[in-house]
C-alpha cells in the first residue's frame, strides 16, 4: 500500500466525459489499496480563455486580480471531479489553495510555494476520502490568491507529494512518457524508462515540454520520484529519479531541439576591456535573456560578438544592439531568425570524453554546418540553420544509437 | 458625501463591454464625492451553465462541491471588474467571501449570513480603493465556501451595507424600479417612487421578481433603505423604506399575479379530527409547499378540502394525495393546473375596511369567477381561471386607480 499523488493536466480534464474517466482511474487505483491524492489543472483552453477576458479589461491586467480570475479554472475542475467520484460511490473532497493552505510568497503570477501544512489532507486520507487539490494556485499570508505560473500544477503536485511524504508523484499527461527525442520528427524515438532529474532539467530547458522545470527542481531537491505517464493508457511511462550508476552506461539519453531562438552578430567590435558589458547590459535591462555567447577574434584589435536571444524578443534586441554598436564603434550588426538549436543530453557524458566530437562528426557527415556550440557537464548544444533541424535530430538520434532498445 | 453599496446583477455584467460601462458608472459616482462599495453577481447565464456541468457529473450534485463550483461565477466578475476600474485610472480591489470574510452557517446552497467584519472593507475605503465584493458567496468557520441561494447577491449587498452602516443600498437591475403591476400585461403600470418593506415583501412572495425576499427582510430588520434602479439609465428608481404615514393614504400600492401554482381538491372527505394532518403531512414530508387551503363543509359529515401547490410539484402532489384519499376514504381527487393568483397589496389596507369587497366587486363586474381567497394584513389574493389573468390584473389596476399619477 503506497501513498500516491496523481496530477492530471488540462487535456485529461478537458470535458465532463474525461473528468469522469479520470475519476474511474483514480477509484480503480484506490481499490487496489493505494491512498491517492489528486491534483488537477484547469480544463484545456480555460486559462487562455480567461486571460483573453482579462486583456479586454486591461491591456496589462492587474496581477493580483488576474490571479483571482485564473484560479477559477482549477476551482471548477476540482469541484466537478469530486462530484464525479461521489457519483461513483467513493468519497472525495476538493481543496482550494487557501484551504490547505498552499502558502506562497506574494509574487502574483509566478509565486513560489513556501510551505504546505498537511493536517487537513492527512485527515481526509485517514477517513478514506480522496483529497482533490487545485493545482497552480496558492495563498499569501494576507489571504490573497496567487498563481504559480504556466505549468504550475506540476509544481503543486510535487510539492504536495513532498509535504505528505508520498511514495511517488505521478504526472498524467497526453503523451505516455519522456522520449529519446520528438516522435513527431523522428519515428524511431523510444520512450525512456528511467531518467535522472539532471537530464530531465536539461531537456526541459532545451525545449522538451513534458514537465515544468520548477517541478523537476523541486523533486530533485527532495528526492521525490516523478512518474510521467499517459492519462489515456495504463502503461508505465517514464520515471524521473535520482541518478544511479546504471544511468552512466548510457552516454546520450536524448536528443532535443528548439526553434525558439534567434542569432545576433556584432561585427568588428573594438576589443577592449568592458566591451562585453556595454553590449549585454542594455539587453538584460530590457529583460531579454541571452543564451549562448561566442566571441571570435579577428585580425588587429577587432572581434566579432555573436549571441542568441528568444525569437520573440529578436526585434527589440536588434534595435537595442544597433544603438550600442554605434556607441562603441562597431562596424555592423547582423541578425538571423532562421536558426535552430539541437542538443544531446546524458549524465554518462560526465565520465566519457569524445562525446562532443562524435556529435560534430555526425553533423558534418550529413553536411550540417555548425554555427555556434555550447556545452555543460551533461549536454552539448549546437546552433544550426533551421532548415536542417529534422535532419540533424534524426542523424544524432541514430548516430548515438538511441533508436535501439535499451 | 455618502457611503453607498451598489449591487449589479447578472445582466448588468453579462459581458466585457457591460462590465466596463458599470465601471464607468461607479467611477462617476465616486468622482461626485461618494464612497462606493460594489457587489457583483455572476455573468448572466453562468450560474446555470455551471449547474449544467454539475448535473452531468452527479444527478444530485454534492452541495459542498456545488458551492465551490458556483462561487467561481462571481469570482470571475469581481476580478474583471477590478481590472476595468484600474484601467480607467482608479483603484479597486476584489474581495471573495472568505477574504472579508462573509461568515455564514454551513447550510450549503442556502446559507445564512451570520457576521461580516468590516475592517478590510473599511481600510480599502479609507485608502480611496473601491472594494468589489463577490455576491452570493460566504464561508463557514471551517473555511468551506457556501452560497446563499438564488438571488443571494441582493442579500450580500444589503448585509454589507448594514455592516458598514451605509447610507443606502442600491440594487441595479434590468428594470428601472418597482411597478404598480407588470408593465408587460398592463401598459398603464407606473413606477412606484416609495414603497414599504412590508409591501415589497408581499410583492416578492406573490411573484414580482425584482428583489430577493431575504434581502428585503434583512433590510427591514436593520432599516437599511434599498434603492432599486436600472443599470442602463441614471433615472431614480424605487426606494424601499420603512413605512411612513404618507404611505397609508394609498390603499392599494400594487397588483401582482402568479401562474406558478396549481389547485388540488379532495372531495367528500369524512370530516373528523386529524383529517387535515393526514392529508398534509405526506405532502410536507415530500418538501412540497402548500400555499392556500380552503375547507368547504358539505351535507352530512363530509367536507371538500382544496389547496394550492407549486405547479412544478403538481404531479408528485397528486399521486401523494390520491394515495391518501384512498386511505382516508375520500370520494375522489381533482386537480387543476390552469389557475392564476391575482393579488392587491398595500399598507393602507390596515386601517381601511372594504378593500377586499371592492376587489371582489371589480372582478365580478368583469365576469371573473373567484375560486379561492386568502388575505393577510396588507394583501388580498384570489385564485382565478388562468385565462382571466391579464383581464383581472388590468381591471384591478384601473379599479384601484393605480393608473393615475400619485
Tell me about this structure.
2 copies of one chain form a homodimer. In chain A, 34% of the residues lie in helices and 26% in strands. Chain A contains 12 helices and 20 strands. The first copy, chain A, is an alpha/beta fold. The first copy, chain A, starts with a strand and ends in a 7-residue tail after the last helix. The model of chain A has no long low-confidence stretch (mean pLDDT 93). In chain A, β7 (137-139) and β8 form a beta hairpin. Chain A has helices spanning 16-31, 46-57, 63-70, 72-87, 119-126, 152-164, 197-205, 213-222, 275-285, 314-328, 355-365, 389-399, and strands at residues 3-8, 35-40, 92-95, 103-104, 113-115, 130-134, 137-139, 145-147, 168-173, 194-196, 226-230, 238-241, 254-258, 261-270, 293-297, 302-310, 332-336, 339-345, 370-376, 379-385. In chain A, the strands form 5 sheets. Chain A has an 8-stranded mixed beta sheet, sandwiched between helices. A 4-stranded antiparallel beta sheet of chain A has the order 13-18-20-19, with helices on both faces. A 4-stranded antiparallel beta sheet of chain A has the order 15-16-14-17, with helices on one face. The radius of gyration of chain A is 24 Å and the shape is globular. Chain A has a domain at 3-174: Carbamate kinase. In chain A, α9 runs antiparallel to α10. Chains A and B meet through α1, α2, α3 and α4 of A and α1, α2, α3 and α4 of B.
Number of helices of chain A: 12
Silhouette of chain A: globular
Largest interface in this structure: A-B, 38 and 38 residues
Q: Kindly name the structural category of chain A.
A: alpha/beta
Poorly predicted runs of chain A are none
Helix content of chain A: 25-40%
Reported by name, the CATH topology of the domain at 3-174 in chain A is Carbamate kinase
Biggest beta sheet summary of chain A: 8 strands, mixed
Strand content of chain A: 25-35%
Distance between the termini of chain A: 30 Å
Rg of chain A (CA only): 24 Å
> What is the architecture of the domain at 3-174 in chain A at the second tier of CATH?
3-Layer(aba) Sandwich
